[in-house]
Write a structure and sequence with these properties.
Nitroreductase-like, Nitroreductase family protein, oxidoreductase, alpha+beta, NADH Oxidase, Nitroreductase, binds flavin mononucleotide, 7 helices
């Protein structure tokens, strides 16, 4: 299945970070596969895909994550909780000091792709870093060579988000030739 331009546009413009989800809703496996394929197809210039996802389905584990996640409702309420990780063995090893930076860059890009794909199927989502990374790493038995980047949770909202915050004007974002202070 391809995402039409119209659906992609709508997914990107209208998706919001959702806090409250319909916990009883189940995302069909075919939709999960579609979302994963979309991220898999993202071209980030690497020969081998570094993306690793730990899909947390165990309810007790979700509760434990919530305990180390500042009691945020998404941790137990979202249909899907995916821990987005990067396998650093797949990244260029020539500059180890920047390995974590690289991993976070890739993790963010894949997460965006996952959320856009989810939105194109009508799902709500939220990127999340509101949890104790070391505690979650232990809970999911993260191997040493993986970097945990963030969660992507998705499902169906059961509460509308607050109105969007104000945005910068395009003039405040776009500079020409030099980024001098105005
Ligand atoms: C890297 C990152 C981490 C985030 N972590 C959380 C989180 O832990 N909990 C949460 O409720 N929202 C989290 N958010 C969502 C932001 O709160 C949300 O994107 C912001 O409020 C803007 O809302 P909007 O995307 O609906 O416009 C995170 C967003 C980003 C980009």
């Amino acid at each position: 299945m391809m995402i039409s331009n119209e659906r992609l546009h709508k997914a990107m413009r209208e998706r919001r970070a959702i806090k409250h989800f319909e916990a009883s809703f189940e995302v069909p496996a075919s939709d999960r596969d579609y979302i994963l394929h979309f991220a898999q197809d993202l071209d980030l210039g690497l020969a081998t895909l570094p993306l690793r996802i730990c899909r947390v389905t165990d309810k007790a584990l979700r509760e434990q994550i919530r305990e180390v996640g500042y009691n945020q409702p998404q941790h137990t309420g979202a249909s899907e909780l995916w821990v987005v990780c990067i396998d650093t063995d797949v990244l260029a090893q020539d500059n180890n000091t920047h390995l974590r930076d690289q991993a976070m860059f890739y993790g963010a890009a894949y997460s965006q792709a996952l959320m856009v794909a989810a939105a194109s199927l009508g799902y709500d989502s939220c990127p999340m870093i509101g949890f104790k990374f070391a505690a979650v790493s232990e809970l999911i038995s993260l191997p040493d060579n993986y970097v945990l980047c963030n969660f992507v949770v998705f499902g169906k909202r059961n509460k509308a988000p607050l109105p969007r915050g104000s945005k910068l004007s395009l003039n405040d974002i776009l500079f020409t030739n030099e980024l001098a202070q105005r």
